[in-house]
């Protein structure tokens, strides 16, 4: 997601030199470093597909499209027969509804799945990709969004973890950017997005930051979720989904708060480390805080790109 952010930023900034460097950095993955291409075996590795799609959109080279599609299609390469029978009964039920076999109702999935499917739609124009993303998003909205507008990390983990909600905010923004105006699920997704943005307004700190646990003022200001929420608000204001007078100042405050966490090397501080789901409040409060972790670097680039869009 950091390379995706860098590619979109370079394009909108008109920085051809940076674009060329990024393309060159990716090139070994077709040759001597092919082993480093992630295996599309789980939802966290398939999000890689969003990068070759972006390279295709910028270069129109077929090899990038083929690589991207292999990841997007793998997300819906649902098991059949005996392989299907080996899945948990609830997963079999979700597959029967047309959802991805990667469905697990962890909030992180709503970036990992919708991002790749949205990119596949942008690259191919094939409606099946955006339809999949919209259907999956509605299922997650129904399962995880709480009456207060925020999202549990998972149905059995009743905490509003910052970056988890950040994945949802960024995923909805990326999906809505490409979802056709007349799409049958657009109103439902837009309503979920607006409900979330209204909730986030209430929990933004005076410093512009959001917390590791969004509704817990005792938890620390966390930069990856702040970047994602700021990106979602900038996108919403620019696209006309949100009222500019209400959300413009919050987005500005978020951006100005966020960039104070950049050090002399442009590494962002106070990034929550990679986090599993756990029904334990202290687990979330005690997560290590990283510097320069890609979970934090990428959203800074997304915000910069959204400001240029």
Q: How would you characterize this protein structure?
A:
This protein has 309 residues and is mostly helical. It contains 15 helices and 4 strands. Helices cover 60% and strands 3% of the residues. The chain folds into 2 domains: 1-101, no CATH class; 145-309, Glycosyltransferase (Alpha/alpha barrel). The mean pLDDT is 96. It is globular and about 50 Å long.
Characteristics:
309 residues, mainly alpha, Glycosyltransferase, two-stranded antiparallel ribbon, 15 helices
User: How many β-strand stretches?
Assistant: 4
CATH architecture descriptor text of the largest domain: Alpha/alpha barrel
Give the fraction of residues assigned to helices: 55-70%
> Multimeric state of these chains?
single chain
SSE layout:
Elements: H1 2-13, H2 16-26, H3 43-46, H4 50-59, H5 62-74, H6 81-85, H7 89-96, H8 109-124, H9 127-144, H10 162-178, H11 186-203, E1 210-211, E2 221-222, H12 223-239, H13 244-259, E3 271-272, H14 281-285, E4 289-290, H15 294-308
Antiparallel strand pairs: 1-2, 3-4
Helix pairs in contact: 1-2, 1-4, 1-15, 4-5, 4-8, 5-8, 8-9, 8-10, 9-11, 10-11, 10-12, 12-13, 12-15
A few lines on this structure:
This protein is mainly alpha-helical and 309 residues long. Helices cover 60% and strands 3% of the residues.
